[in-house]
Amino acid sequence: MNRLSPPPFASLQDVRRAINWAISTRRSVRAFLSKPVSHEEIESILDVARFSASGVNMQPWHVHVVTGEVKTRLSAAIKEVDNDPVRSLGLEDPYDYYPREWVTPYLDRRRKVGWSLYGLLGIEKGDKERMHFQHGRNYSFFDAPVGLFFTIDRVMGVGSLLDTGMFLQNVMIAARGHGLHTCPQAAFLKFHRVISSVLQIPENQMLVCGMSLGYADENSLENTLITEREPVRAFTTFHRDNKETTK
Which keywords has UniProt assigned to this entry (predicted)? Predict the structure, then answer.
């Protein structure tokens, strides 16, 4: 791929529309069709995603792709632990993905997306059995045919987590170009030892995130959930010269 090549469309407006479409239609899909995704498609997505930015071009990410029998075996191993209260008690993430203390507005947003999903599925507050079942669907990759795990070397710093996050975004956006959807999943983190054991991931590699990849089941209730995003003015501060005016 020539990184200095001109845009593939007749106008920059067409380029902008395509990019904006891919970014804005990316969403976390929680129900997939069994329709297979070819090895060539997976490799094509990763081949584009590899052009992600990284500090001093370290490219710290490593990707583990699971399909078929390996994916089935891994799901079974995770669910065996997840369904055992004794074995799952005390499992810890390899790093702090979420804050140790939740505060507003982040707690409010977390609750909203959780109860919006459960509301769609008719899961009432306090129904721990159905909550556990729904959360456990993470570990079957929401029936997607492809699972991805992203790792970095344990010697890397926080910056490499940021770099890998940008790489993940590239993967998800590139997937849209193939008509595919994704779901990035921090839910896998506490099972990092199980995942490393089944996939024989070297000890020096730390799990950063999991992801489901496939064709969305557009008829599922789960996939009618569209989460809200804050407007630009809510998270942006423009530092302007006092003489500047806006119209």
Answer: Flavoprotein, FMN, Oxidoreductase
β strands within the chain, DSSP E: 62-66, 146-153, 181-185, 205-214
Buried b or exposed e, range 18-37, using 16+ CB within 10 angstroms: eeeeeeeebbbbbbbbeeeb
Question: Over the stretch 77-112, which tens digit does the pLDDT of each residue have?
Answer: 999 999 999 999 989 999 999 999 999 999 999 999
What's the CA gap between 36 and 31, in Å, rounded? 14
Residue ranges of domains in the chain, CATH in brackets? 29-227 (3.40.109.10)
Residue matched to tokens 């890397």: 156
The burial class, CB within 10 Å (0-12 / 13-18 / 19+), for 145 is buried
Taking the whole predicted model, whether its pTM rises above 0.85 is answered as yes
Give the tokens for residue 158.
Answer: 């926080």
